Amino acid sequence: MTPHLHIENLTKTFTLHQFDGKQIVGCTDINLDLEHGEFIGITGKSGAGKSTILKCIYRTYIPTSGSMMYHSDTHGLIDLAKAEERDILEIRQKEIGYVSQFLRVLPRVTALDCVVEVLVEIGTEKAAAVAEARAILSHFQLSESLWESYPNTFSGGEKLRLNLARAMVKRPKFLLLDEPTASLDQGSKASVRDMIIELKRGGTSMIGIFHDLEFMESVVDKEFNMRNGIMVGGYA
């Protein structure tokens, strides 16, 4: 079986026009195969290039060079590095989830509605969406007293748990996780671990970046390390 995602010679550089076009390397010559239902963990110091890889895959960043061949349910085999923006938006909505440390939602939308809208967008009937949203918010131990509140009032840990709920509630085909346990206590980490295991059993493929090595080693199938924008090693 061909990989779910085949990354070849992925490079991303940033041009600092205010400094006479100086080039900053985010990541360079990245080669990676993600199998169906596999979870790859990426480690490295801050600034090593880990987040750059995730943002290129999600197409928050447009890669400078290289290819990212992804098996899409709606588009077949597609190069995420060169795909049209409208195709990327559709794949994000239907197939790819992204968990960031930072919550970006409309300011006057409640926590519950933030999760419900994700399900409604993919065609879930409203009543079922509300029930599923309530269930996953409970799973991530987000207090019911916060469900009708606005997330901009939440603590960092509460915002991260809401981000996890939004990304995982639709059981995506492919999930990207950027430090999914940062600012979480041990009980919340256990909830994240349980959901990751459940998603893996359901066939979700995942790539995550971590500083919490103990947590990472409890859920991933392979590990890779980044240093100065280069992938320097990995093991299963």
Automatic annotation (TrEMBL):
Lineage: Bacteria, Bacillati, Bacillota, Bacilli, Bacillales
InterPro entries to which the protein is assigned, alphabetical: AAA+_ATPase, ABC_transporter-like_ATP-bd, CP_lyase_PhnL, P-loop_NTPase
Family classification: Belongs to the ABC transporter superfamily.
Keywords of this entry: ATP-binding, Nucleotide-binding
Protein name stated in the entry: Alpha-D-ribose 1-methylphosphonate 5-triphosphate synthase subunit PhnL
PROSITE patterns: ABC_TRANSPORTER_2 (PS50893)
UniProt signal peptide: none
Origin superkingdom: Bacteria
Ranges of residues in domain ABC transporter: 5-236
A Pfam family of this chain: ABC_tran
